[in-house]
Amino acid sequence: MSESTIESILQEKRLFQPAAEFSQKAQIKSLEDYQQLYDRAKADPEKFWAELAEQELHWFQKWDQVLDWQPPFAKWFVGGKINISYNCLDRHLTTWRRNKAALIWEGEPGDSRTLTYAQLHREVCQFANALKHLGVEKGDRVGIYMPMIPEAAIAMLACARIGAAHTVVFGGFSAEALRDRLVDGQVKVVVTADGGWRKDAIVPLKTQVDKALADGAAPSVENVLVVRRTGQEIPMQLGGRDHWWHELQPQMSADCPAEPMDSEDLLFVLYTSGSTGKPKGVVHTTGGYNLYTHMTTKWIFDLQDTDVYWCTADVGWITGHSYIVYGPLSNGATTLMYEGAPRASNPGCFWDVIQKHGVNVFYTAPTAIRAFIKMGEDIPKARDLSSLRLLGTVGEPINPEAWMWYHRVIGGERCPIVDTWWQTETGGIMITPLPGAIATKPGSATLPFPGILADVVNLEGESVGTNQGGYLAVRHPWPGMMRTVYGDPDRFRKTYWEHIPPKDGKYIYFAGDGARRDEDGYYWVMGRVDDVINVAGHRLGTMEIESALVSHPAVAEAAVVGKPDELKGQDIVAFVTLEGGHTGSDALKAELKQHVGQEIGAIARPGDIRFADALPKTRSGKIMRRLLRDLASGNAVSGDTSTLEDRNVLEALRDEG
Ligand code: WTA
User: Fold this and answer.
1) Which residues lie across from 73 on neighbouring strands?
2) Pocket flag, ligand 1, residue 525 (CB < 6 Å)
3) I need a surface site. Which of 57, 91, 425, 553 has the fewest CB within 10 A?
4) How far apart are the C-alpha atoms of 174 and 190, rounded to whole Å?
């Protein structure tokens, strides 16, 4: 932890009440209804969740115990048997939803596909059988490194169906980052594509997989399944490791009953950046995650049966897992998936998709909204966006002006906005408006979801006062919470449960974000309090980027900090000292940026590199990032510098900047 006090300067007073027509049709219709739900859940969280689990999900066998809490390890619906693929597919087939669109997909070049629930079920069953054919068994791990195409969702659901855990690796990650995750997860089969379309170019996924697996670097991987998407020439090891999806999958039987899974069986591992060390594998299990993503989707996105719902995230992130695939399909909704991104040749592509498919509920990130603002409002205004009735954001705090623009230009001043705060670790949305019930304030995620005992605390675990800054925390387990760090329970305990030391056996979940609560009890999330940088809504650990830099032969030492950026929220600034015999130059800067892109992925490439003779350190040798942050942002160095070992270092860095 770097700062012990957190300052909050935002003072936003505007208040937007939900429109009466919206509230009347909403799942949760008034503040009183929300308050009642919240109070009931708080009084007896187990009873609250158990009732919903019974009403909303299919269980092959009911649980014996709702919650087994041996802090910090929680088990939900112990003894219950369930399958999330069954809840997302099979149970809809005996209703009118059988022939409803489950997935509407739009490719970047303009091709599109719609799969009904019956069709999606069939594809999933056939692919599940293909995995079995390749020797995948219950308990194995499958890596998914895919573009945004239906096969990504099909592969996830197929894994869940047979009880294999998936590890989705974002397609923008490099071969090196992919390899680390495949090795850590001991992945048996990798599902990928020849390539994917992004900004009019092909992302060469299969080539990256080949690199990741080269020289037996990920020995657990036995087979690679490849979807033909872009059609460019790629090397295939046929008759051996590599298989074409379109050759194998259609031969398979469409009969593949969903495996009754233990509620606490592993559903997936998703890697995320922390403040120290390598990315951690966040573990989510079956029953609790199914319930939590189901309920949050239902009440927050307020899905009506005729809605087309679109979340613009990539399935490689938790938002894609919970709110493109599992939450919407468990609710029998129509979920839209889009392969592309706004690009020079079509900056209005998002609005085209909304117009073409009559999207009603739209969920995106503040960084995207800021980019749209820059492109100008004429672009969305030239499209018909009248189908929209609800908007959402996720990934970072949204600045009130971006919120107002979203409200006015995209929402036509009629759509509520749900600003949803949550994390990979929480599995689903934690703090958010319920759109028919809770009045919104631009920039505030408003109130906790029913059943979430959120708080803002100091490091002693005491609630801080109104409008005082503190640490965002949760005081009671919830069904969607992560269960552990894959293979490292100790790291789980230390990272999330010991920053605030437990008292009298009471453990508090430490989210790593600063926040305050205003006079109405509304939460204002202020961003990370640790060394995690949030670039365009993507979490990056400083440690990972520093390790990547130091792996370059010219670099002796590196310290990475975030600086405010108009578009991306934060940009990366790297302070670098060089090995003897190397001198700083623009060419070396470019090379180092390229190197980080190679090691981790383009999202981690520093915007700025500054060479230094030495880095500012404490007497005990800790790099003083606080000072570097000030320098990087062009601010005067604030706060105490008395612990600095050598003040000259600071002067030199200042001159350099
Ligand atoms: C940040 C993404 C403010 C926060 C779902 C959190 C937010 C991290 C918001 C998790 C929001 C996410 N307002 N900050 N509405 N949503 N964050 O794991 O710092 O990729 O800790 O999960 O994003 O990022 P992650």
Assistant:
1) 70
2) yes
3) 553
4) 15
Going by alpha carbons, the residue nearest to atom 11 of ligand 1 is: 421
Strands 470-474 vs 454-457: parallel, antiparallel or unpaired: antiparallel
| 198 belongs to an annotated ligand binding site | yes
405 pocket-lining for ligand 1 (C-beta < 6 Å): no
pTM: 0.93
**Ligand 1 pocket, residue 528 CB under 6 Å:** yes
Q: How far apart are CA 318 and CA 327, in angstroms?
A: 11
363 Cα to the center of ligand 1, angstroms: 14
* DSSP symbols for 516-534: EE-TT--EEEEEESSSEEE
Distance CA 210, CA 524 (A): 45
ipTM of the predicted structure? 1.00
pLDDT in tens, 14-47: 899 999 999 999 999 999 999 999 999 999 999 9
According to the annotation, is 493 in a ligand binding site? no
Q: Report whether 125 contacts 161 (CB < 8 A).
A: yes
Residues 360, 398: Cα–Cα separation, whole Å: 21
Confidence grade of residue 2 (pLDDT, cut at 50, 70, 90): very low
The CA-based diameter of the chain, rounded to the nearest angstrom, is 74
Q: Is 114 annotated as a binding residue?
A: no
User: What pLDDT shows up at residue 3?
Assistant: 37
Q: Is 122 annotated among the ligand-binding residues?
A: no
Residue 632: CB atoms within 10 A of its CB come to 25
Answer yes or no: are the C-beta atoms of 6 and 626 closer than 8 Å: no
Which residue minimizes the CA distance to atom 3 of ligand 1? 397
The yes-or-no verdict on residue 90 having pLDDT over 90 is yes
119-158 burial, b if ≥16 CB within 10 A, otherwise e? bbbbbbbbbbbbbbebebeeebbbbbbbbbbbbbbbbbbb
Assigned token pair, 326: 């599992």
φ, ψ of residue 168 to 5 degrees: the values are: -90, 130
Helices 586-599 & 175-184 angle (0-180, nearest 10): 30
